[in-house]
Amino acid sequence: MNPLQKYILSEMDAQHVKRSKLVKRMGYSNISKGLRKLDEMLETLEGREWLLPLLQDALKIPDEKLQTAVSALEDEIFDAKSSVFKPSIWVLYTIPLGFFGAMSRTRFIEVPENASTHANEMDIVRGLCRVLGDKNGISIRKGFIYHRNYGESIILDNHLSIGIREA
Length: 167
Hints:
Layout: H1 3-15, H2 19-25, H3 31-44, H4 48-59, H5 63-84, E1 88-96, E2 102-110, H6 121-136, E3 139-149, E4 152-156, E5 162-166
């Protein structure tokens, strides 16, 4: 059970509120749907923008405690996704279609996991991109997105120059 689930369950127990009553308080008339949405949000934070305020109001819980539990779950989710993340490059290219214009496509390239620790990391990435273009005769017109770490991407233009770093 994650920190947010534990916190909400403890509040429900303290207030003697059953799950069905909680989703009714949150405004759901379809109890099954409300329980599904609540469970999904408590596990993945999906829909938290609108469900957390409803939940907070339904249980009359303080904002600080709720935010602490949400932050702890965000950290768990980030750690879980980071542990299975593999560096990759998404190549954005076009295929000319003659008179009809061009069609955009995306191709995926795996990057060696140790590339981000090398001093010449970007040379490795540029080399992988060039090889793909040369090997397949692809006209790279849109650029590349190098997913370096979970939550960190580097956008390269079609000349393989670093564009924008995303956090």
